[in-house]
Amino acid sequence: xxxxxxxxxxxxxxxxxxxxxxxxxxxxxxxxxxxxxxxxxxxxxxxxxxxxxxxxxxxxxxxxxxxxxx
Length: 70
Prior knowledge:
70 residues; 4 helices; 434 Repressor (Amino-terminal Domain); single chain; 0% strand
């Protein structure tokens, strides 16, 4: 599972708060796109991440860090 997919699956999806179909509908995605995203089969764009965050009721932060800090 991709890191982004873990965030989606590990949040509301894993807690059983949203089914794949509900998340897909709330974020304007197809139902088949959700498991592909969770599994890391697709690379999300920023607009997709924004829609997923809104559907999950969470904020989205994009952060640049120095490689030395990582």
